[in-house]
Amino acid sequence: MYKILLNYFFILLLLGDGVSYSQSFRIVGQVVNATTQPVEFMDVYLTTSTASNMPHTYTDSLGNFTLQAVRGSYTLTLAEFGKEKYSQVITLTQDLNLGQLTVDEGVMLDSITITAKKKLIERKVDRLVFHVENSVAASGGDALDALKATPSVRVKNDKIAVAGKSNVSILVDDKIIVLSGDELNQFLKGIASDNIAQIEVMTIPPSKYSAEGDGGMINILLKKTTQHSWSNTSRTAYTQATYPSTSFGNSFNYQKGKFSLLVDASVRQTKTIYTNDIHYYYPKEHWQSEIYDRVNNFGFASIVNFGYDISDKHNISFQYLGNNDMPKTKERGITAIYKKEDQSLSKTLASINNTVNNNGNHSFTAGLSTKLDTLGKKYTIDVDYLLSSSDKNNKQTTQEIREDNAQDIVTLLTNSNVQRINNLATQIDFELPYAWATWEFGGKISFTKINSGIDIETAEELKPVNRQEDQFTFRENTQALYFSGAKSWGEKWQVKAGLRAESTQNKGNSTRMHQTNTSKNIKLFPTLYVSYKWNDMHDISLKYSRRIQRPSYKNLNPARWYLNTTSYAEGNPFLQPAFTTALELSHSFKNRLYTTVSLSQVKDGFGQLTTHNEEHNFQKFTQLNYYSAHIINYNLYATIDLFHWWTTAFEFNTFYTETKTNTTYLKPKYSGWGAYFIATTTLTLNPAKTLIAEISYEQDFASEYIGTRMSANANVTAGIKLFLLDKKLQCALNANNIFGTDQAMLSNTTQHIFQTFKQYYDTQYIRFSLSYSFGNKNITVKQQNTSNEEEKGRVN
């Protein structure tokens, strides 16, 4: 496989170099101000004395710009608010790198300096970009809080979805996080929202990224430090929900000359609750369970990153991302069992659970970046290692109280689960921009090993001790190659197409089941983007992709985890990946109104089902490939500037699903609708723009998806941010679920048993946060990007 990769890259590189001569050429540069800070959203255009409708663009968040034009002489102009800031005559005979161009940002009008309003939302051909640092709602929180404020992203009960689609892959600085479930949530809670610059939402990701995740990808981009400077930011937050929680953190950045350093550390002490009201309606009995969890957690997270420029072309870097969490859960549960015939109480199960977890995630990345020329051609090599560990110990005491005066039965249950995940991955990426097209290609090799051990012991009066043990080992090796090309025709058309090939070999072994499962496959995943700029007001784009959703490692583990003496969860080593084909049509009006219609087809869909054993009085939560589906989704997003100080954003999303199942537990066919609506208003309350307020209303309408119905629910949030001391000190106050209406009931029917679940995740809270920054802008830090982490989406 290594030889194939090397030969493939070498051939493509030769092909790329062989087409460097073209009738049109690229112009690149960077716009900075007098203090060498990048200037964003600057107009950049070419003019001649004879031609009109010349190339035009804007600088990005780093001040960079790219133009394309045929051979000839031009005037390059930089402008802001229609006022010319810089001009230069150029003669274009080959690709041209203009380097840094210095401008004066301010526009002086009657002694008043007007600066550009920072964008909150930005649309690109293959993604939506949310500028977190310009959001009030995300201030003082963590990455999950920032995702909650991101358009098209839903975070409900700590589950992340994009525009109605679940199974989303999470990236940090373009590198996939190989975690899921609780481990992923703990990882994201370890990243302060104040350290996030942007969040990119890709409903149909390019071929460069893994084909994992039918719900697309979310890329969290950490802040970069400006050149020739150092800075330090200290932060703290106090959250009052049912119980108080606190967090503290400090980030230090330094960059000078060839050396850069970033050190960030944070600690958090949280205390939260979780409740669940469950009803099972059996033919002869009605079970009513009330669960109350209180979770105390102490967590620590850190980032260490340094880089060094070996030369003008070569840069090496190293990054460590890590967190440790030690949640302790005390659960009290009571289950009342009623006779169906007369609703009389038959018996009661009262249980106490004490669970202690010790979770750790540690990621190490070493990278080499090499520039092939001054016009953007480069390749990067990353080597990554991930170690994830989870030790979970639970002790349960259940007392069965019978109403017929029979002797009470006390059951003691001890449940231990240990999991270790090791992932080693290496990736190489080439970027070859030319005047006539831009090419990208590369590959990845990944080796994953999981060891899981479970030990269950039950003791009941007058009965011998029952013990279950299992060791589950799982190995997964993946090799991937990708290739993509992008080309523009004038200012109207843009096309980007790519193909990714992934080969996977799996092997799982369970000592309890005395069996070994193996599988091998090679799959192709094409992507296509076509964008057409109708005029200055209308843009249309069409996207197509095929993606895969692999089971998480936890879902493949056949070992049992007892929730109480009457219910347990277990994985399925025979679970197969699901495949999704998606087609998406989008329209943009004045970059203010965005509408998207998408069609998706899911094959071999999998998920958790509740099965019942009435004879032995227990419920089992298991994973199965049990459905195929067709989904149509409509999304509308609009922003309106009512006044220069008042901006309102609206989002409406609705979907319709038709599902066929292949299990006797469910009906053969289902269909249903779902929808939600979000309105967010942002108010700038003073001319200095140092006092900003935000209020949001979110409404979920009643919905149905694959036979599961969800009741309507709503959420109202509000926040205010204050800047002091020349904006070095930021104060933010945020309130979530103000009216306590963010709670829904889920219901479905399995094996002809109707069941309901009403869960609450302690979402009603007030958070006050402070952040203070200081430093010297005359010297710098370069923040490092991590690399591996593709498998992090499946660890739990």
The span between the termini is 29 Å
pLDDT below 50 for ≥5 consecutive residues: which ranges? 1-6, 8-22, 107-117, 780-790
Radius of gyration (Å): 28 Å
Instruction: Give the biggest sheet.
Output: 29 strands, mixed
* Percent helix range: under 10%
From the helix content, strand content and strand pairing, which structural class follows? mainly beta
Query: What is the average of the pLDDT values?
Result: 83
Given the structure, what is the number of helices?
4
How many runs of DSSP E, i.e. beta strands?
A: 46
User: Multimeric state of these chains?
Assistant: single chain
**Broad shape:** globular
- How much of the sequence lies in strands comes to over 45%
Topology summary:
Layout lengths: L1 H16 L6 E9 L10 E5 L8 E3 L5 E7 L1 E9 L2 E10 L3 E7 L4 E3 L2 E3 L6 E3 L4 E4 L11 H6 L4 E4 L2 E4 L6 E4 L2 E2 L4 H9 L6 E7 L14 E6 L6 E12 L3 E13 L2 E23 L3 E25 L4 E12 L2 E12 L5 E27 L6 E25 L6 E25 L4 E23 L5 E24 L3 E18 L4 E19 L4 E12 L3 H4 L3 E5 L2 E4 L7 E12 L3 E21 L4 E26 L2 E16 L7 E16 L6 E10 L2 E3 L2 E3 L2 E12 L4 E8 L8 E6 L2 E8 L4 E12 L20
Parallel strand pairs: 1-7, 14-17, 33-36
Antiparallel strand pairs: 1-4, 2-3, 2-5, 5-6, 8-9, 10-11, 11-16, 12-13, 14-15, 16-17, 18-19, 18-46, 19-20, 20-21, 20-45, 21-22, 21-23, 22-24, 23-24, 24-25, 25-26, 26-27, 27-28, 28-29, 29-30, 30-31, 31-34, 32-33, 34-35, 35-36, 36-37, 37-38, 38-39, 39-42, 40-41, 41-44, 42-43, 43-46, 44-45
